[in-house]
Amino acid sequence: MKKRKSALKYFIRLIKLGELVRRREGFHKEYAGKASVNSDVKYYEDTETVEYEYMNHDFQFIQVVENFGQIIYSEVAQKLKKCQVVIYDGLTSDSLVERQAFARQVTKDVDSLIGIVAGQHIYTKYPCVSTALAEIKKFVTAHSPLQPNDLVDVPDLVDSTIVSCHYKYVGVGTNKEDKALTRHYLTELFHKLRDELRLIALDTSVEDFREIFSGKAVLKPVTWIGTNKQLRHVFMSIEPKLMPLANDRVGKWETVAACFVHRNGDSFTAKQLQSTGLTRKNAAKMSENEDLGSVLR
Fold first, then answer.
1. Could you tell me the sign of the dihedral formed by the alpha carbons of 92, 96, 100, 101, in that order?
2. Backbone phi, then psi, for 64, in 5-degree steps?
3. pLDDT tens digits for 67-78?
């Protein structure tokens, strides 16, 4: 039997190993401390929200609002989908004996986590955690080889995933990524697109935005509220700063189309982005995005 990575690794770390509690305490300590010495930083302990101004590379101040609960909600939603991919693979690959053993182990693990969450009051502040665990248990039950009807309603989770764009900052004279600067420059691009140019939905979190430049499977596309032409132009502006595509069988426009969705939730197609040229009518709007390539270093 081949050794599988834990399907519930993230949730075990978050709940059983106490990562959520530590991160919550760290969030409060960091921003309560900053607010005590800087009147421009507003921290609201009861809602776990911080407000502060951020200066971009053009020396413009951007208002930033971060909420710890929203950060956890967004993260859990993303990890749930990844968890389901791993679980589905474990329930449908290998021999029947191995699949049954995997199903028993996952069921035991998720029941243990559900028990921990039910017994700790802190999780009432973050109901997304218990909801995610309930979804995982329901998913395992529906697709478990232990069930008499075996697999039902097979989800299209594994084969349909496309690896996202990938950006990482590598300093001069080194081959090692500076992860702090990677996050910094992606955050600058995020605020430029969301808060200045208003090209992505206002409810987009910086965590979700960074994820579509992580080089990992696209599980939560960002909502694009600009035009197809603007999306094409933005990508072409930043493309020289991105890493080569991990899978050369998937074209760059297929990758971009997977990273974003229209404001009505419809998916983009590569064809929509390949054939959008500049016209005199939209040339002015395109000029607004010319400096985006300089945001990523």
1. negative
2. -120, 135
3. 999 889 988 988
